[in-house]
TrEMBL record:
Residues 57-147 form the Thioesterase domain. GO terms for molecular function: fatty acyl-CoA hydrolase activity. It comes from Pseudomonas borbori. This is Medium/long-chain acyl-CoA thioesterase YigI. Belongs to the YigI thioesterase family. Its EC number is 3.1.2.20. The keyword GTP-binding does not apply.
Amino acid sequence: MTTPPIELTEELQKAVSGFFQRIPFNQMLGIQLGELSSQRVTMHLPMQDGLIGNFVHGILHGGVIASLLDVVGGAMALIGAFDKHRHLSSQERMARLSKLGTIDLRIDYLRPGRGQHFTASAVLLRSGNKVAVVRSELHSDDGTLVAVGTGTYLCG
């Protein structure tokens, strides 16, 4: 038996956007929300001097890359978890989703993060009752695949 696809309701869009906006670290890095859908989440990051890890070559810091992939993965996990808890009242669902957290994150750095603008995307691999697994990618403005990540998230 297959489950129907996740419906990205206005309530769900507001929940994901609200969670994202309330995290000061996301704002400090300059992460911007892009696409929010049941199949994919994207986020954008304009390059800033404060995000450089290699000052000689102007390359994006590896910690920023990991953070961005974690944030986009967490948003995708939140969408999957929201669907799993759709039988709960809005208040109960939000209480559970407020406990969302990263259990494990693996990042493979493939190329230096060169560019003026970066786009991170994430897709849901599996969403269970308590855990979600997400695959994410980071591309530079010329389309170069900079890094990939796999994250496991506690979802209630």
